[in-house]
Write a structure and sequence with these properties.
The complex is a heterodimer of chains A (334) and B (338). Chain A has 334 residues and is α/β, with parallel strands linked by helices. Chain A contains 11 helices and 12 strands. In chain A, helix 3 runs parallel beside helix 5, helix 4 packs across helix 5 and helix 5 runs parallel beside helix 6. Chain B folds into 2 domains: 251 residues, P-loop containing nucleotide triphosphate hydrolases (Rossmann fold, 3-Layer(aba) Sandwich); 72 residues, no CATH class. Classes of the chains: A alpha/beta (334), B alpha/beta (338). The structure holds adenosine-5'-triphosphate, adenosine-5'-diphosphate (ADP), iron/sulfur cluster (2 copies) and magnesium ion (2 copies).
Chain lengths: 334, 338
């Protein structure tokens, strides 16, 4: 975000609107899963994307992967809009690892076939060189070659997630989009997968977008963090800055709700009185205002603008030097 | 193990499940006590037998599943010998359960209000209006705004977090003395999780209930439990007061689990996490010795035999291992294992 080099991957003012049919008479409403959202990913970054269920994390991932088209806005790779790229060539460079190691693998295919599939789709090499590539990648993710003839049902959750990782990496991508890659796994398996992702990053110079509900995991792995709320990024900064000194009241509440295994501490009071709002009918002004412990009258009517300063991006009146809420701001910053 | 004043006592509970390939010894010889007002967390990875244990306590296991115990008693009532009718009158009245997935235990065809009211009128005689008032009161207590109007809504009209709150309210309708919550927050956002756990703790204090909270999340355990029981492959490998278990984890599995999770402030960012290589063994057929031996860095031949119970330093808690200190002094990093 701070560098001037062309970002590897960029979303520029992306909006994704879904049409939803409601009620008996099929009245159609629109739901903005992403709202005028901009995001940059630089080479070697691990960008952690966090936020509550339904805030738009997976939608963002699908757009980056080209699985969904934005309603408006652009996706740029190396500064060139995605439309100008050869789609297949792009898919080779960006690969996904999804949450559920159970449903993302076709149960009727062997592990060999599953991992070789992207190579076949992209017409890479001949049968012999593909087999060699599959064996190599299997070794990288720490699976023995005897599993090649197995079916997914014969493997444990952790092994299946390794297969999913092998399949993502067999194309030697530069960017890997991980959507909750470990949330279906037990902690003893999760730590192996997280270690593997870390090793692969240093070995192959990978760039990750890492989506997770688990903030302790994000804190451990990410170099940058973006916090999402109702289709917007409300704060983005380096991981250390966010975890040591979050500025947005929502980021603060999220961090506060992390239960570190410290028996001397109680369950925290997040002060987030109300539940997550309905995205079809978002609150006025700052979308976070009904739950914000720092809300002022300005917040109810005026949408805060993104402010970028030395500490990163934040979208909250409290941190906007031009926002007309001086007394509260004064109070907040003292 | 039995302590005076316990409301729940479990001694040598085993659960066997017949399968096509033989008997699955899903839970083996576990025991614990619970006092009124106390919280016990049963922590373990998926398949370790946590849910089966809670279902056995509630008398909700199918008839093909065989439950054995030296003792399983709730306030002096023998839960092993209790008949179907007696269990039905206890369930939802004096002991309640909150399930992981609220949709499976809420009836989609009835309103929230009807279900809450029925939870009470099933057990307590009296005017329906009393039950209705209590339902509204409890919905407010669990933090549901405009409780009156929620009463006429159907389960599918509520978010996951709200449904879980309704389940809690329902479990409390009759003022139970024991509440068993099976992963009540696993499917929820961290923000909602914190709110629900706080709520459970507050209500527990207010009503003096005993609580068994089942989870796989060590963060939840640390913040909520008075007592901890660590479960692995159907056995309790370590039990004791929360502070002691975290300060002095003695079983190699407990220590392994704690090393697997990144602990903000403790684990250095970006470093490698600890791992427990290998997978859970099959519990079908003959199961003897320490079930953890296929993954334990210290395993040796005698771990195939009966494993004695050890008392941790300071006599504070107990665990099962051949070594009196559970090899706590030894380094178990991957380097050491290699
Ligand atoms: N195909 C679709 N049609 C209609 N609405 C959709 C569709 N996909 C997503 N949405 C809506 O868009 C919003 C964002 O969804 P998304 O799946 O991106 O959330 P998420 O942040 O990944 O949540 P979770 O943490 O639960 O995975 C939600 O309100 C969701 O209901
Ligand atoms: N009704 C059942 N029939 C057959 N096996 C079961 C049944 N219920 C549970 N099991 C098995 O018993 C073991 C423990 O299950 P469970 O108590 O649900 O684990 P946990 O709740 O700790 O994840 C698992 O191996 C599971 O597959
Ligand atoms: S703009 Fe106002 S309501 Fe929104 S986060 Fe900032 S203080 Fe809270
Ligand atoms: S009994 Fe043996 S295998 Fe089991 S935990 Fe102790 S040393 Fe490890
Ligand atoms: Mg998602
Ligand atoms: Mg369970």
């Amino acid at each position: 975000m701070t560098g001037t080099e062309t970002p590897f991957l960029e979303l520029r003012n992306v909006t994704k609107t879904y049409k939803i049919k409601q009620g008996l008479f099929g009245e159609t409403k629109s739901l903005d899963a992403l709202k005028d959202l901009s995001l940059k990913l630089s080479k070697g970054d691990v960008l952690g994307l966090v936020g509550e269920s339904g805030c738009g994390k997976s939608t963002l991932a699908k757009i980056l992967l080209g699985l969904e088209a934005p309603t408006s806005g652009q996706v740029l790779v190396d500064g060139t809009p995605i439309g100008g790229h050869d789609r297949l060539a792009l898919a080779r460079r960006i690969q996904p690892i999804f949450q559920d190691p159970y449903s993302s693998l076709n149960p009727r295919k062997t592990i060999q076939d599953l991992i070789a599939l992207p190579l076949r789709v992209h017409n890479v090499g001949d049968e012999a060189s593909r087999t060699k590539a599959v064996r190599e990648i299997l070794d990288v993710v720490g699976l023995p070659s005897r599993v090649l003839t197995n079916y997914p049902s014969q493997m444990s959750g952790g092994q299946r997630q390794r297969v999913a990782i092998a399949r993502a990496l067999v194309m030697r991508p530069q960017i890997v989009i991980c959507d909750e890659p470990t949330s279906a796994l037990d902690v003893s398996v999760q730590s192996q997968i997280l270690n593997l992702l870390g090793d692969l990053r240093s070995e192959f110079g990978l760039t990750y977008l890492f989506i997770s509900h688990d903030l302790a995991v994000v804190e451990h792995l990410a170099t940058q963090v973006a916090v999402m709320y109702l289709g917007r990024i409300v704060e983005e900064t380096d991981a250390a800055a966010l975890f040591d000194n979050a500025r947005h009241p929502y980021s603060q509440a999220l961090l506060k709700s992390v239960l570190t295994p410290d028996p001397a501490m109680e369950v925290p009071d997040t002060q987030l009185g109300m539940a997550y709002p309905n995205p079809i009918d978002p609150p006025s002004g700052c979308h976070f205002h009904p739950r914000c412990p720092r809300v002022t009258s300005l917040c109810k009517t005026q949408t805060p603008r993104p402010v970028v300063d030395t500490q990163g991006l934040v979208e909250c009146h409290l941190h906007d030097p031009q926002a007309n809420m001086t007394p509260a701001r004064q109070e907040a910053l003292t | 193990m039995t302590q005076d004043g316990a409301i729940l006592t479990v001694e040598n509970l085993s659960i066997d499940i017949p399968t096509e390939t033989g008997t699955l010894h899903a839970v083996r010889n576990i025991g614990f006590d619970l006092k009124p007002g106390e919280t016990l967390c049963i922590v373990g990875e998926s398949g370790s037998g946590k849910s089966l244990t809670s279902l056995a306590l509630m008398g909700l296991l199918g008839s093909s599943i065989k439950t054995k115990a030296n003792r399983m008693s709730f306030d002096g009532i023998d839960l092993i010998r209790a008949g179907k009718r007696q269990m039905r009158s206890l369930r939802g009245a004096r002991m309640s359960m909150i399930f992981q997935e609220p949709m499976t235990s809420l009836n989609p065809a009835f309103t929230i209000g009807d279900q809450l009211i029925e939870a009470m009128t099933l057990h307590v005689k009296g005017p329906k209006s009393d039950a209705r008032n209590r339902a509204i009161d409890l919905l407010q207590k669990v933090g549901i705004t405009s409780a009156e109007s929620r009463m006429s809504q159907y389960p599918h009209q509520l978010s996951g977090g709200l449904r879980q709150r309704v389940m809690i309210a329902m479990a409390l309708m009759c003022g139970p003395e024991l509440i068993i919550a099976d992963e009540p927050t696993t499917a929820l956002d961290v923000t909602i999780q914190a709110q629900i756990l706080r709520l459970l703790k507050d209500l527990q204090q207010e009503f003096g209930m005993a609580m068994i909270l089942i989870t796989h999340d060590l963060g939840v355990v640390a913040r909520v439990a008075d007592q901890v029981a660590v479960m692995y492959a159907g056995e309790l490998v370590e039990t004791g007061p929360t502070a002691e278990i975290f300060a002095c984890p003695s079983h190699p599995y407990t220590r392994g689990l704690l090393r697997c999770i990144p602990q903000p402030g403790k684990t250095e960012r970006g470093t490698r996490l600890g791992t427990i290589p290998g997978i859970v063994p099959s519990l079908v057929g003959d199961v003897s010795g320490c079930a953890f031996r296929t993954r334990c860095a210290h395993a040796r031949d005698i771990c195939r035999s009966d494993i004695p119970e050890q008392t941790a330093p300071g006599e504070t808690h107990s665990f099962r291992c051949i070594a009196p200190d559970g090899f706590a002094g030894m380094d178990e990093t991957e380097e050491a294992r290699a």
